[in-house]
Amino acid sequence: MRAALLILLGLAIGVIGTSRVMNALAARNPMPKAVMHTMGYHMGELKQALKAQKCDAATIQHHLLRLQSTATDIQPTFGIADKAFVDDANQLQTRLQQATVSAPATCEALAAALKPVGETCQSCHQKYR
Ligand code: HEC
Q1: 60 alpha carbon to ligand 1 midpoint, in Å?
Q2: Which phi-psi region, left, alpha or beta, contains residue 103 (left: φ > 0; alpha: ψ -120 to 50)?
Q3: Contact by Cβ (8 Å): 78, 32
Q4: How many CB atoms lie within 10 A of CB 105?
Q5: What is the pLDDT of residues 43-82, one digit of tens each?
Q6: Helix 83-101 to helix 107-128 angle, to the nearest 10 degrees?
Q7: What is the mean pLDDT of residues 8-18?
Q8: Domains of the chain by range and CATH?
Q9: Global pTM?
């Protein structure tokens, strides 16, 4: 009886210890959040430009290119293999590429280019955030 209890206790400690270690490892990998914060910064700058009605083509292109390149880090850093996640990550890349190629030079063009991008951010966040 006592041996059985000790074995159970040992198992419980093992389970708790494992989950602690997993949490600590997750906390030590800042990359997924860093990727999101970087994209959030560039999206924020573009939205700010819209709000202020200051839509400089070169500045817009810079932020779109940074978004496009950062979006390629989503899959390798999150390592989530779900089809819906991978589809959204791919769609984000496609839409950012389209936005960059369209080279918005007015606030109107920027708003139109950002709409499908924002929808993809939202789509994945609704499912995975
Ligand atoms: C393929 C899925 C996916 C796409 C697409 C996506 N995100 Fe995220 N995002 C996530 C997940 C998952 C989290 C939660 C991360 C966490 O808590 O560790 C998140 C969190 C965030 C956060 C909060 C970071 C924090 O502190 O937790 C911001 C800001 C963000 N995303 C911005 C964006 C922007 C801007 C876009 C579009 C340009 C975008 N995301 C597109 C999956 C995605």
Answers
A1: 21
A2: left
A3: yes
A4: 14
A5: 999 999 999 999 999 999 999 999 999 999 999 999 999 9
A6: 170
A7: 65
A8: 30-128 (1.20.120.10)
A9: 0.84
